[in-house]
Amino acid sequence: MNTMKAWLKRENRPDEVIRIITGWENKVRTCNLYTAFEEQAYLGRILFDLKGYWIYDGTELTVNEQEQVAAFIMQHQLLPDTQLTDSDSR
């Protein structure tokens, strides 16, 4: 399990720092999203499959905000030319 922080430009709220907690569940990278400075303020999660496709599971983020977070995770968690493989999942 890894933890990262990212700056999120919000569309309808003040911009904020979010906390991203990543892990693996059945060959799916799970990225649980929380506000960084509130106790367990859950924003949803982004799930990545082995091919790098993702889906947002939540109601708090707009589509643009989801895309910002997914791009940040891909840039900071995966090497640019590396595909996830079965051996990468734990």
What keywords describe this structure?
single chain, 90 residues, alpha+beta, Nuclear Transport Factor 2, Chain: A, five-stranded antiparallel beta sheet, globular, disordered C terminus
Short description:
With 90 residues, the protein is α+β, with helices and mostly antiparallel strands.
Describe this structure as you would to a colleague.
- By secondary structure, the protein is an alpha+beta fold.
- It has one domain (2-83): Nuclear Transport Factor 2, Chain: A, CATH 3.10.450.
- 17% of the residues lie in helices and 40% in strands.
- The chain has 1 helix and 5 strands.
- The protein has one helix at residues 63-77, and strands at 2-8, 16-25, 28-35, 42-48, 54-57.
- It has a 5-stranded antiparallel beta sheet with strand order 1-2-3-4-5, covered by helices on one side.
- A hairpin with a 6-residue loop joins strand 3 (28-35) and strand 4.
- The chain is globular.
- The N and C termini lie close together (10 Å).
State the helical fraction. 10-25%
Principal-axes geometry comes out as globular
Unreliable stretches covering 5 or more consecutive residues: 78-90
- CATH top level is Alpha Beta
- Write down the secondary-structure element order: EEEEEH
Count of β-strands: 5
| Spatial order of strands in the largest sheet | 1-2-3-4-5
For the sheet with most strands, the description reads: 5 strands, antiparallel
CATH architecture: Roll
> What fold name goes in the CATH topology slot?
Nuclear Transport Factor 2, Chain: A
